[in-house]
Specification:
seven-stranded mixed beta sheet; binds flavin-adenine dinucleotide; binds uridine-5'-diphosphate
């Protein structure tokens, strides 16, 4: 047999894994499988890799095209793993809240309490504690959870409007866990995250994902759902990171998401807002936040800047799904789809959409690493 025939035969051999989705879950799983000698094909319906963490270099600024992404984790295994594929800078997220022109520090800390009530020392925390007592018993929704964490004044100015814009639902109809992510501190610490490790990959997230996928075959602009049976025939096993309800052709109904719209603008000033992230927490401003991308990478020597206004919107089929809405109705529909998914033996459902889960990047990486370990 000549080299050509060998090559042809090799081409006809099945892949061990077809990975649907070149986001973080798919890229990490593919990297692990390839490193163990498996043959992997990655496809994505978009025209680029990296899924929602995609960054595009525009005039020397890495623009986070699907929303601002700050890598943060307490998981040393995940931190050590990502270091193999990118260097990380020392960016620390400290967003500012703008409520009708009044500026407040985030997350909720001594600077916030000082501005709100004139509190100067942590000993004066009684002021906060008194407001929190309004809720007795276990908080039943986001509104009650927020008031029991930080009191009504902060809830009214910094949480209520922002959350309603973000989720398109009143706070008393949203689950409490969404707001538990935010730290409340009696210290002067503006670091938004409590994580041990934090930073932005130098050169952008796209480079990180390209490095993960190095040496792996990737086909872009290829939609798995357009010809499922053909793609299924290519590999022994499928790793599917698209939306789980779309996989089952919405047969039980549609899971709801929140979608986002981004309005990018190149502004001819060196410094537009002095920070990477400013949240607009009142309900009159139509957008939720403005991102100034250069500040993720300390690029403030440029004479211009790129900003993005982020608008939250209700999702409808065909829109980009961003945030799963993990309320009771959607969670119970998801568990029905999950039962169907468990019957599909040759398919692994993973990632934010495949598991309909509000995953951070480090959690999605940990989940992909764990999924691969299970395969072994
Ligand atoms: P995705 O990145 O969505 O990848 C799925 C891929 O599958 C996509 O590329 C899609 O095109 C492809 N696909 C879907 N269906 C098909 C199909 N039928 N055929 C082919 N391809 C298909 N996390 C943090 O840790 N820090 C942050 O600051 C942070 N900020 C965020 C901000 C926003 C606005 C959002 C929405 C999320 C944020 N996250 C953040 C979460 C982070 O984006 C996710 O955890 C991570 O990107 C999920 O990766 P994934 O691979 O599961 O999904
Ligand atoms: N939140 C808020 N005001 C803010 C920032 C956040 O009320 O200024 C609430 C809001 O409900 C949001 C939740 O806290 O959905 C979690 O915020 P985070 O910034 O973690 O959300 P992300 O956009 O990163 O998912």
């Amino acid at each position: 047999m000549g080299f050509r025939e060998i090559e042809e035969e090799y081409q006809q051999m099945k892949y061990d894994y077809l990975v649907v989705g070149a986001g973080l879950f798919g890229a990490v799983f593919a990297e692990q499988a390839k490193s163990s000698g498996k043959r992997v094909l990655v496809i994505d319906k978009r025209s680029h890799v990296a899924g929602n963490v995609y960054t595009e270099n525009i005039r020397g600024i890495n623009v986070h095209k699907y929303g601002a992404h700050i890598f943060h984790t307490n998981n040393s295994d995940v931190w050590n793993y990502v270091q193999r594929f990118a260097g990380f800078n020392r960016y620390t997220n400290s967003p500012v809240a703008n409520y009708h022109g009044e500026l407040y520090s985030l997350p909720f800390n001594m600077y916030t309490f000082n501005k709100m009530w004139g509190v100067i020392t942590p000993e004066q925390e009684a002021k906060i504690a008194k407001q929190c007592q309004e809720i007795s018993g276990e908080p039943r929704n986001l509104e009650e959870q927020a008031i029991s964490l930080v009191g009504r004044d902060i809830y009214e100015k910094l949480i209520k409007g922002y959350t309603q814009k973000q989720w398109g639902r009143p706070c008393n109809e949203l689950p409490a866990f969404i707001i538990k992510r935010l730290p409340v501190r009696l210290t002067f610490d503006n670091n938004y995250f409590n994580a041990l490790y934090q930073g932005i990959p130098v050169g952008g997230y796209t480079k990180l994902v390209e490095n993960l996928l190095s040496g792996i075959e990737v086909k872009l602009e290829t939609d798995y759902l357009e010809d499922k049976s053909y793609f299924d025939s290519l590999a022994d096993k499928i790793v599917y990171t698209g939306a789980i309800d779309a996989y089952f052709d919405y047969s039980l109904g549609t899971l709801e998401y929140r979608s986002l719209r981004f309005e990018n603008e190149l502004v001819n000033v060196n410094n537009f807002q002095g920070n990477a992230v400013i949240n607009y927490t009142d309900s009159d401003t139509p957008f939720t936040r403005i991102i100034e991308h250069k500040f993720f990478e300390f690029g403030d020597d440029l004479p211009y800047t790129i900003i993005t206004r982020e608008y939250s919107s209700e999702w409808k089929p065909g829109d980009e799904p961003y945030y799963p809405v993990n309320d009771e109705k959607n969670s119970s529909l998801y568990s029905e789809y999950k039962t169907m998914a468990e019957r599909e033996e040759h398919i692994i459902f993973g990632g934010r959409l495949g598991e309909y889960k509000y995953y951070d990047m480090d959690q999605v990486i940990a989940s992909a690493l764990k999924t691969w370990k299970r395969e072994l």
